[in-house]
């Protein structure tokens, strides 16, 4: 018999992450969402993280901030009768592979765009990652209190650069100093902007109906007329909202506002809890897991190290995919084939880490980890299966590691092996020489690795530049072709930390030419754990 409580809890959950370019307003909008979710004390902790953001990318400093970063790694708050889980996607100096992998653990994403800057590089990249699982995207065009670009132009750019249709849900009335509010195209309600309400839940001053004479009274004859014409034009020239197309990742509903002014955020959130999907089915190597399935399952998408300086603990972040987690339950750690009793999983509901009594699909729990849990690990109730789709991503930054004391080679190799299993970095060993090359997607990853090698493995390593621009994992069914490729391309081949053959390309052009020359070989930008 289906479990009604489970089905209800699943229906309540909305698990998402924000994708944006640095400075578009992710932190600010997070604060406002927490404010609406009445998690005000956390809003403060997000802020203090931001205050230190421009500090140097110094790992020691990061360590001092660790307490903050863990509580903001996952934020759970109620909104509109739903339970929202917001997973943080590190974006500034702390941008790393975790950012990408977090996107594999959500059911939808909110794209925040700076209205003056339009679509920026990091957003393009994160969108590519969302596309790996056709993640539905909702859009917020931010900074309407500034003179931004024409809203229609911003939407055109989103459509063109990100290859997704835009359906405006709200429409801005003016911008910059003349920003008056937004008109909801589907509810036929004008929401009026009042300045200076950024740090509290703003009053909702509204006018019902675009044809309401109050519109003239508030906006004046000319502006009211202009707005009506503009709305008609926009309705004719843009896509209509189509829920199914949104869920397929083909169309994004677009909301306008100012995160700093805390305006337009409420309308966006109302749309979000209404349209964003609840916990979705997930693929494994044996079956598709439905969230309503009573058998507990989950996977680890992130490991955070050394969060408490007094204990050398690491927290593994597990996304619950089906069933219910209960305190003291036994689960199967599939990779090592052992049942483990989890008595002290963490939840992220309050400002502090607290112990969780129960968790449902879509929720994230933190497991204490003493080195036995790796990224991508699956936990089940006695079932032999593994979740797929939590990959390694091809690094974009590379450095050669050199030891200060050559006798420490063993310790270095052990350290790098463990750190790469945790997802802190990726390691590549060229087949033609004895180099050790580290790969990352964010520069801080290198600092973290150097620091942890020193603290945890007593190894002093220094980095050198290396002529590698990107990496691709190599697959080929034709054994003879593969052997030929290995011989001829050996100068650019390496084995990664998991033992997989990788092509490490000195330039993009080189990669492209090699791909053209070897059509039988697959050059994959991701690899499963
Ligand atoms: P991020 O997390 O995406 O990197 O962006 P964050 O929220 O930190 O915002 C980046 C900057 O943009 C901040 O200014 C923030 O105040 C500003 N900002 C965010 N939303 C809006 C908005 O709606 N309108 C305007 N005008 N500005 C906005 P900062 O000067 O870097 O920081 P701060 O001194 O304001 O804290």
TrEMBL record:
UniProt keywords, alphabetically: Cytoplasm, GTP-binding, Nucleotide-binding, Protein biosynthesis
Residues covered by the Tr-type G domain: 11-280
CDD domains cross-referenced by the UniProt entry: RF3 (cd04169), RF3_II (cd03689), RF3_III (cd16259)
Residues at which GTP binds: 20-27, 88-92, 142-145
Recorded coiled-coil stretches: none
Pfam entry (one): GTP_EFTU
Major place of residence: cytoplasm
Subcellular compartments: Cytoplasm
InterPro entries assigned to the protein according to its UniProt record, in alphabetical order: EF-G-like_DII, EFG_III/V, G_TR_CS, P-loop_NTPase, PrfC, RF3_C, RF3_dom_3_sf, RF3_GTP-bd
Similarity comment text for this entry: Belongs to the TRAFAC class translation factor GTPase superfamily. Classic translation factor GTPase family. PrfC subfamily.
Function recorded in the entry: Increases the formation of ribosomal termination complexes and stimulates activities of RF-1 and RF-2. It binds guanine nucleotides and has strong preference for UGA stop codons. It may interact directly with the ribosome. The stimulation of RF-1 and RF-2 is significantly reduced by GTP and GDP, but not by GMP.
Listed name of the protein: Peptide chain release factor 3
Annotated source species: Halomonas tibetensis
